[in-house]
Amino acid sequence: MIKSMFARNLALGVLLLVGVSGVFAAQPPANQPVTVTNTLDNAVPVTGSVIIGNTMDSVVPVAGSVDITNTLDNAVPVTGSVIIGNTMDSVVPVTGSVTITNSVVPVSGSVMLNGTPSVRDADNPAFQPFVAQLDLRVDYPDSGGTEVIATVPEGKRLVIETVSAFSLLPAGQDQWPNLSLEVCTLANCISHYIPMEIRDRPGGYFEVYTGNQAVRYYADPGSDVSVRLDRGGDSFFGSVHTSLSGYLVDLPQ
After folding, report:
1. Cis omega (within 30 of 0) for bond into 141
2. pLDDT of 9 strictly over 60
3. Contact 227, 136 (CB under 8 A)
4. Which one, 84, 86, 187, 226, has least CB within 10 Å?
5. How crowded is residue 127: how many other Cβ atoms within 10 Å of its Cβ?
6. What is the 3-state secondary structure (H, E, C) of the chain?
7. Stated pTM of the model
8. Is residue 192 within 8 Å of residue 215, measured between CB atoms?
9. pLDDT tens string 101-118
10. Residues near 55 by Cβ (< 8 Å), separated by ≥ 6?
11. Distance between CA atoms of residues 125 and 249, nearest Å
């Protein structure tokens, strides 16, 4: 009888031990690291936040759009083409060689240029030289007249640097011609007077005057530059040949 009771107790202990072991064995381990071998051919879709330990020795291919919080202290190396939405409010620090294809790039701080950069002076007068000339005649009974010598192209500003003139007037008409150039600058049209000096009196009937002056006049885009001749009488006729030279400057659109 003692042997029979011992056998039953032993069997009951084994069953309890197996049951308890089964209960503990059924519990999955908590917070265990998982290694995912993710490739483009066998992609594993992931939702939520993902931290990628990406190095040049162990590159993880990624497809689709990825937001990278990249800092100098925690740099993420990237190969291939990368589009950087870089603004003054959200600056993305970049190291290494970068090819920039956009036309205007805001840059702050120090910039290193390798090689010899090509610098182009867009306002160089030699790029868009400008000349114009006009023959203006004032007949009896008029004592003065005005004509347009040049019209400034749209989108450009005309810089006038030199004005020269040759005038022929009947003798005795106040001994001088009154020559002026009307230029519109910032919508203000102003007459600029050109000094003239007598040079000759051929035959005593006419007098020859000449003038040449270095100036700096700025004419608005689309405006007219005009020449005006006033004389001290109205007999016969008076004439003036006027020429100007300068250059055009492109204005920002």
Report:
1. yes
2. no
3. yes
4. 187
5. 13
6. CHHHHHHHHHHHHHHHHHHHHHHHHHCCCCCCCCCCCCCCCCCCCCCCCCCCCCCCCCCCCCCCCCCCCCCCCCCCCCCCCCCCCCCCCCCCCCCCCCCCCCCCCCCCCCCCCCCCCCCCCCCCCCCCEEEEEEEEEEECCCCEEEEEEEECCCCEEEEEEEEEEEEEEECCCCCCCEEEEEEEECCEEEEEEECCEEEECHHHCEEEEEEEEEEEEEECCCCEEEEEEECCCCCCEEEEEEEEEEEEEECCC
7. 0.54
8. yes
9. 666 666 666 766 666 766
10. 77
11. 8
120 band by pLDDT with thresholds 50, 70 and 90? low
Side chain identity, residue 251: L
Residues in Cβ contact with 22 at an 8 Å cutoff, skipping those fewer than 6 apart: none
Is the CB of residue 33 less than 8 Å from the CB of residue 55? Answer: no
pLDDT, tens only, 194-225: 999 988 888 778 889 999 999 999 999 999 99
Tokens for 229, please give them.
Answer: 């001749």
Query: Among 168, 169, 164, which residue's Cα sits nearest to residue 149?
Result: 164
The tokens describing 159, both together, are: 């810089």
Instruction: Give residue 230's Cα distance to chain centre.
Output: 46
- CB 163, CB 226: distance < 8 Å: no
